[in-house]
Amino acid sequence: MTVFKLIIFLTTLSLFSCKTNNKNIIAKWENGKPKIERVYSDTPNCFIEKNFYENGQLASETKFIDSTKNGESVAYYKDGKLLGKCIYKNGKINGEVTEFHKTGSLMFKGNQIDGNLVGTATHYYDNGKPETELYYKDNKVFLVNYWDSSGMQQIINGDGIKKFQDYLNKNKNGNDTTINVFVVGIYKDSLHNGLWKYYNVTDNKLILERDFKDDKIISEIWK
Description:
This protein starts with a helix and ends with a strand. The protein is mainly β. The relative contact order is 0.06. It is elongated and about 65 Å long. Residues about 1-20 have low confidence and may be disordered. The chain contains 1 helix and 19 strands. The protein has a 19-stranded antiparallel sheet that branches. The chain has one helix spanning about 5-20; strands at about 25-30, 35-40, 45-50, 60-65, 70-75, 80-90, 90-95, 95-100, 105-115, 115-125, 130-135, 140-145, 155, 160-170, 175-190, 190, 195-200, 205-215, 215-220.
């Protein structure tokens, strides 16, 4: 343990030993408002850490035990509306994870074990309708069902043609860039398979074709 970490550790122990139901401001914004605050309880080595936006609005609050995240963590938008919830166990997310649109409707729901998504996870549009249903297994992700913004289901049980807008982060020369594209691609057995076409949204011209086999790019042709 470095001298710096030792000092922090000893300071933390001192705070636990002398503070009960008390607040301690760890950091402040330039405007003087709290940025990070810890609220200590009667339980030894247990506190709630609160993070704040510069405007003073609560950004998140997380329970710590023995300086490790343990318990519920809640995040908020700048306007105070709920952003998301999860549960930590020994510093890693375990259990249900939920995220919400600013409208208050559910945006995402899934489960994690030791910080990794497992099983079924679903993304939702801000109108509450499902967008994407995924399945996570062995650190791999499989697309099960997909609905476009009108509610039409394009992918059913892992098979279908998906049409959507996306971004390419490199051009035909391999240079970093951002290209807004409309994509048309085939899913088979929940994976990219077959020919995928990428159209530049600006002029609707085809700029790229990729051939996939079980999520791997077999060939790539820039136009």
